[in-house]
Amino acid sequence: MDSFDNAYDFVTAKHPERATLGLRPHAAARAASWFLDNFPGEVAYAYKANSSVFLLGALYGAGIHSFDVASLPELEDAATIPRARLNYMHPVKPRTAIRRAYHEYGVTCFALDSHDELEKILDETGCADDLQLFVRIKVPAINSKIPLERKFGATADQAVQLLTRTRQYCNKLGVCFHVGSQTVTPHAFEMAFATLRKTIVEAGVVVDGVDVGGGFPACYSRERPSELIEFVNVIKKHFESLPVSSDCHLICEPGRALVAEAESLIVRVDARRGKELFITDGSYGVLFDAAHLKFQLPVRLVGQKSVKTQDCTSFSLWGPTCDSIDYIEGPFLLPNSVREGDYLEIGNIGAYGRAIASKFNGYGQYNEVILYDEPIYTMYPKSSNTFVQSV
Ligand SMILES: Cc1ncc(COP(=O)(O)O)c(C=O)c1O
Q1: Fewest Cβ atoms closer than 10 Å to its Cβ: which of 130, 195, 253, 362?
Q2: What pLDDT, in 10s, does the model give residues 80-93?
Q3: Does domain 25-259 have CATH number 3.20.20.10?
Q4: How far apart are CA 86 and CA 287, in angstroms?
């Protein structure tokens, strides 16, 4: 893959027709090192967030060897990583996937949130005696952009019974939860631990593992989420006082926080109509979250040195397809001078961007290049709080 110092050098050299993903493996490696240094337990990567081999390589090289997978295709892919430890943490799995995960890929760690799922796991593994089963508990989503509790998790009452029953059939019993993706304050983890405590006490079972899921935030704008260390401190404090076995294993499985800032999207402006720009990727591509969940992504005009706010205009973006929902309202603050033929860098799209992109209208294929410069925003020390304009 070609590599460049920054988006400007790439655009000047290649004048790309297609939308381009600018990968920054160094940013993924930095994020992984931060989690490995600061999180007081195992760090597993949520594979679904981005399965680029370059980013996986960076995470792996930094020391992340555990992966949370959520489907059989993800599992098959992740199983090609040498010595990968794979946890199948989707609470509802097809029978074939359970069977193949256990018998072909040696996966012993599964999540569940119902008695039916427990039956399925027992049936398909032949009541194996080496299972590590994590009961997913519903916890409130607080300050999160994508709440997950409506879809998954046993309520505290259901979880009491489910924990008691699951304990009888597994080698190691765990509890897990997810506070919702892009949770911007650690309060949700406090509430989640309160629910865990109550449930474990009522069930009166020995718990060998606690998986706090993902939800750790990425930085998309000047309004920074709480610092990651605050999340870790809350988890550490509450985990230490949880009524669990003395050698209870703590796990986290971030997706977004590990890879969001490790990719940018580079697009060309194909038309300007007033304050609207038509660009070469959109809501059917990697900008799904920006279009449908109103993520405010950072953007800069490639090749433009720092611009005063008074010389900027708030733009909306139209994607390249024929569909009118292919629209990203923004606002995207860009120099007043933007015009057809210019290129934009839309930053921090590494989490779930390429994973969601579709091929609608023949799009969905991207150039890929490595970029050596810094992401537009970072959550991680050294370059925190920096807003780097292309030169
Ligand atoms: C079970 C599970 N773990 C981890 C993650 C990763 O979450 P995030 O990207 O918010 O860190 C998800 C995301 O949906 C998930 O469902």
Answers
A1: 362
A2: 999 999 999 999 99
A3: yes
A4: 29
